[in-house]
Amino acid sequence: MLLLTAHGADRARAAWDRWIDTTVLPPLAVPVGTEVLARDGTLLRAFPVGDGLWRLAPPQEGVDPRFLSMLVGWEDRRFHDHDGIDRRAILRAAWQAVTHGRIVSGASTLSMQVARLLERGRTGDWRAKLRQARVALALERRLGKERVIDLYLRLAPYGGNTEGVRAASLMWFGKEPRRLTPAEAALLVALPQSPETRRPDLMQARAAARAARDRVIDRALSLGIIDAEAAGTARATPLPEHRRSFPAHAALLADRLRRENPGARTIETTIDARLQVAAERLAARAVAGQADPVSAAILLADHRNGDILAQVGTAQFADGASGGFVDMTRAPRSPGSTLKPFVYALGFDEGLIHPETLIEDRPAAFGRWQPQNFDNRFRGTVTIRQALTESLNLPVVRVAEALGPARVMAAFRRAGMEVAVQGDAPGLAVVLGGAGVSLADLVQGYGTLARGGTPVRLHDRPGVPEAPGAPAIGAVAAWQAANVLAGIQPPGGQAAGRVAFKTGTSYGHRDALAVGFDGRFVAGVWMGRPDGTPVPGAFGGDYAAPVLFDLFNALGPRSVSLPPPPQAALTGPNAALPRPLRRFVPPGSLADSGSSFRAPELLTIQFPPDSAEVELVGATLLVRAKGGTPPYSWLLNGAPVAVGTSEPTAELPVRAGFASLSVVDAKGRSARVEFRASGGG
């Protein structure tokens, strides 16, 4: 008899196991919204899932342990002991129903609730309860307790289109559920039981929400999860009065990254969450109170490694009146005067000019084009430093004409800027803003100046960026341009010298710009209207520059001083310069006038050839020029290394690597080559 009983029990147990093991489970993959994260894991922007639900995966750091203890203590005290169904709770519920003639308490476990949520099943029907019990048993057997809890944390309903504890915590408290107060944890435990009738943002439901929350607090106190003092504080805590918006920082960047990474659950970025919020506030403040819709864009990067730390594509996201859907960090716009430093830097690099070189700011015609200064005044003879500091137009056009528009455009590209022009051949007007360039490219170009002429590739995703190519500008020339920009007077009476910057205003006041850098950071600010209509009275110095300096001020102690001059830099007044650098003389023109005229022989560098690779023997290189008028001055990477030589040859100290070599003759004519030196010792 005992053997028959044992055999029957084994058969019953086997049948029970088969019943559980053959359970067809609902799909266990719970779609969650894409999250775009800052460099420290902070949520920048979340997106709803395809059906419009706000549902997010629990944070990787986990949910507040006190919340989990309250949840188990309230919903399923024997969760860690049962196999998916609580037989004691079932017997208790059945006895209470018989003795009271009605249902007094339920027996649904957390695992059964997960089963119902996965299948979107009913709650009161006994057949539905049986199905939920079977699925709960199978879930626990196949997934384990931890995964079951994870599913609950994703699926628990919190009213409307919000599911999951993380979305609820962000919606009600504006924070991640990693750390919750007892009052917050209790409310998040209570809401899923009746999410629509306990919504604390609805006046008619606030009393029910408070009562349900306080019952959870009382249970937590009785179970020793919190003490009496914490319980009293929790009961006295006001309920949240409104639903909060989900984070939408770096909104346009997040939109683009989600499009570029379809299906990704998390997208990591290089964005610094604190600096991003600060930049967004600055942009919003800059456009507040404007009579007409005006937008702003801000880009901040670490030029040492190219990490983009803050990117504001619009001041008012989703505001159609101000073009809130247009990312103005990537839109080509007129750069105004912000390209001038690169023209002068190229002139420095080629030995054509020096910051203290004298140049004429007088009316001139370049073909049929007669450019004017912004204020329609001319200053006469000025230094290059003054011409750039005051953003004079005639001097930079003279230098650009001497260099040639094609070489200027090539310098822009080497610095990391794609400058779009109308037609096939660029004209001189490009240096005054007659072209299109994005704010991102401008900031990238200024990052090249900040790095001593070495290009940097800005990026918004973590990882090793593409290796930069050869130096775009010599280190001395880059420092000279930065030194001039650092001397420009900042807005608001701030001290000069901390940030090298330049402002720009496009024709018709359509764009106001300011771009600058210190020893670590490079940033740019654009203000205007995305549709290109004018903003009367908008100047880069008045509109954009104050925002730029507020941004640098927000960096606080992270800001780094500008570097000292390279050892090879030639500093000093005009009188201390080599004679050919004291006054700008366009190549091919005569420095003096005489009764006789003989066409000068073209000045060229015969050795090393342009774009050649040269093998060094020792630490010097014999260079040779042809033509021109002695004496000659030789510049290596923008720094004078041999001045006033009577012969067209010179032995120069050269190190391995990329280098630019320039020669200037007595008439101010110049020639330039680039080469790569290898070997040596």
UniProtKB/TrEMBL annotation:
Catalytic activity: [GlcNAc-(1->4)-Mur2Ac(oyl-L-Ala-gamma-D-Glu-L-Lys-D-Ala-D-Ala)](n)-di-trans,octa-cis-undecaprenyl diphosphate + beta-D-GlcNAc-(1->4)-Mur2Ac(oyl-L-Ala-gamma-D-Glu-L-Lys-D-Ala-D-Ala)-di-trans,octa-cis-undecaprenyl diphosphate = [GlcNAc-(1->4)-Mur2Ac(oyl-L-Ala-gamma-D-Glu-L-Lys-D-Ala-D-Ala)](n+1)-di-trans,octa-cis-undecaprenyl diphosphate + di-trans,octa-cis-undecaprenyl diphosphate + H(+)
EC number from the UniProt entry: 2.4.99.28
Keyword Transcription found: no
Location of the Penicillin-binding protein transpeptidase domain: 297-506
Keyword tags: Carboxypeptidase, Glycosyltransferase, Hydrolase, Multifunctional enzyme, Protease, Transferase
EC class name: transferase
Entry-linked InterPro entries: Beta-lactam/transpept-like (IPR012338), Glyco_trans_51 (IPR001264), Glycosyltr_51/Transpeptidase (IPR050396), Lysozyme-like_dom_sf (IPR023346), PBP_1c (IPR011815), PBP_C (IPR009647), PBP_transglycosylase (IPR036950), PCN-bd_Tpept (IPR001460)
All residue ranges annotated as the Penicillin-binding C-terminal domain in the record: 600-675
Domain Glycosyl transferase family per the UniProt entry, residue ranges: 54-218
Keyword Transferase in annotation: yes
Involved pathway(s): Cell wall biogenesis; peptidoglycan biosynthesis
PANTHER family: BINDING PROTEIN TRANSPEPTIDASE, PUTATIVE-RELATED, PENICILLIN-BINDING PROTEIN 1C
Family recorded in the similarity comment: In the N-terminal section; belongs to the glycosyltransferase 51 family. In the C-terminal section; belongs to the transpeptidase family.
Protein name in UniProt: peptidoglycan glycosyltransferase
